[in-house]
Write a structure and sequence with these properties.
CATH class of the largest domain: Mainly Alpha
CATH superfamily of the largest domain: Cytochrome c-like domain
CATH topology of the largest domain: Cytochrome Bc1 Complex, Chain D, domain 2
Strand order of the largest sheet: 1-2
Radius of gyration: 21 Å
Number of strands: 2
Number of domains: 2
Number of helices: 7
Oligomer: single chain
Helix content: 40-55%
CATH architecture of the largest domain: Orthogonal Bundle
Shape: globular
Length: 137
């Protein structure tokens, strides 16, 4: 009997801790900064400084997409990328997974962060419009 009461008390305590923890996380969660969004979504493969990783993942700090073809970036982020891509004199052929959970606002923040961090010309980012045109690019 004492064992049952102890088990019930322990389960109740764990339930309470779980509820309070989840509630606290929900209430105190602030939006991530653009740098935090980049770190969470891009840095694992492309590096914190956009340097890429060996001959596995391409560098993005000096990418033509940041310099010239920024309107293609949202489609690449949302849908991923397959097939060979050449950066400088290095060819990469890894699959970039689709980042379907990244919102339009987060994508805008990430692209703006990359442009600013690596001193690329900033343009008005029309991510929502560019995403609607993904299949035609």
């Amino acid at each position: 009997m004492k064992s049952n009461i102890t088990s019930l008390c322990l389960m109740a305590l764990l339930s309470l801790v779980t509820i309070l923890t989840c509630s606290t996380l929900t209430w105190s969660a602030e939006p991530l900064s653009p740098e935090q969004l980049y770190t969470a979504n891009c840095a694992r493969c492309h590096g914190h400084e956009g340097e890429g990783f060996l001959k596995v993942y391409p560098p993005i700090h000096n990418s033509r997409f940041l310099k010239e073809d920024v309107s293609h970036l949202p489609c690449i982020i949302r849908n991923g990328l397959r097939g060979e891509i050449t950066v400088g004199d290095t060819t990469f052929n890894q699959i970039m997974p689709a980042m379907t959970r990244v919102t339009t606002e987060e994508m805008t923040a990430i692209i703006g962060f990359m442009q600013q961090k690596w001193n690329h010309p900033t343009t008005e980012l029309q991510v929502e419009q560019w995403l609607s045109q993904c299949n035609s690019q």
